[in-house]
Amino acid sequence: MSEGLIVGRGRANHHIMDDATSISYLQDPISQRLGYLLRRASSAMMTDLGSSLAKMGLRPVEATLLITIAANPGCIQSDLGKLLGIKRANMVPLIAALLKRGLIAKVPADGRSHALSLTPLGEEACAGAEKIIDQHEACFAALLSNQDQLRLRKALHLIARTAPASSPC
Amino acid sequence: MSEGLIVGRGRANHHIMDDATSISYLQDPISQRLGYLLRRASSAMMTDLGSSLAKMGLRPVEATLLITIAANPGCIQSDLGKLLGIKRANMVPLIAALLKRGLIAKVPADGRSHALSLTPLGEEACAGAEKIIDQHEACFAALLSNQDQLRLRKALHLIARTAPASSPC
DNA sequence: TATTGTTATACTCTATAACTATA
DNA sequence: TATAGTTATAGAGTATAACAATA
Fold it and tell me: How far is CA B106 from the centre of its chain?
């Protein structure tokens, strides 16, 4: 399983094409490939979202965790990780950081597992993050008609669900 | 500038949703977000492409370099890096590896820069990589009508070109 | 002075292995 | 035996700083 889902480093991670346009004598035969277009669009959006969320001290992955915990109060760490494609081992420092900041609470569930929930502070942070994400989505959604947005989402779902092991077509 | 463009580790990097579906008691409020859909689709495609290319010992970034050098014989390392969004410092080991494998040649251009080109072996590898990428694209393209593919590409271009600094909408 | 290539370095993301304590 | 959490570690990808040689 991969952790590729979440991500986007909130730091200085400017957009891919910053200087590319200045190299006018070169052909870019790769730029028309679907895979690279997806990569560019994804990277652009996540970078952008990352810098927006950074204003409230959250990385995309942290916003994702807060929002998902909010929707699933009492969920346990390992299930949360499975849902989001984050490995158990990599969940540890993520959850520890949110705990340390007082955004989430962890109560023993069955002796080996712990139920996660948002603290009041976490609820606030979550609401703020959702607001930022909403604005961010609206920004990009404005580029497309409603129908094109639906088509885009549908196409992305199809692609995301097809790739796994079915690559031999 | 970012290097986010290229990528996809060719190793064991199975698809994001492998186990997620087994966590049926959890809501996934993030999965409908455009950013995360993009991330998932991108990750799925690049992972898949990575494992296809791995069969011929190439990573996606290496295939990208070969194809771009093929389209721009004599290009210099720094311009290639700028075009692909790879930093000078990070180009060094990439180019060194291709050189060591005898896939590319490097001849002095002006004393400080070197012109890059494919060797016959590199041409072969490049052709092979392009074939794999073609098949791979066809795989995913088959999921969509021609018109939907055009719409998808257009939408991705729009998103990729909009994100950079224009995030304040 | 600016650019090309390079070295060194560091941080993030992701992955595996192995340990513990429970179930 | 299998699971939840943890620790340690390793490999990519990406970032910056600084240096030498050249323009």
Answer: 23
Arithmetic mean of pLDDT, B63-82:
97
Whether residue A114 is predicted with pLDDT greater than 50 in this model: the reply is yes
Q: Judge whether residue A116 has pLDDT over 70.
A: yes
Nearest nt to the CA of A11 via C1' is D15
Cβ contacts of B72-75, under 8 Å, gap ≥ 24? B72/A25, B72/A26, B72/A27, B73/B115, B73/B116, B73/B117, B73/B118, B74/B109, B74/B115, B74/B116, B74/B117, B75/A26, B75/B115, B75/B116
β-bridge partners, A104: A118
CB atoms within 10 A of CB B146: 8
> Helices (H) and strands (E) in chain A — how many of each?
6, 3
Nearest residue to A118 via CA among A162, A63, A69 = A69
Tokens encoding B44: 């799925």
Find the nucleotide nearest A3 (Cα to C1′). C14
**Per-residue flag: A22 CB under 7 A of strand C:** no
Q: Is the pLDDT of residue B1 over 60?
A: no
How far apart are the C-alpha atoms of A31 and A14, rounded to whole Å?
A: 18
Residue nearest to nucleotide C23 (CA to C1'): A112
pTM (2 decimals)?
A: 0.84
Q: Using CA atoms, how far apart are residues A33 and B158, in angstroms rounded to an integer?
A: 15
For B122-140, write each residue's pLDDT tens digit.
999 999 999 999 999 998 8
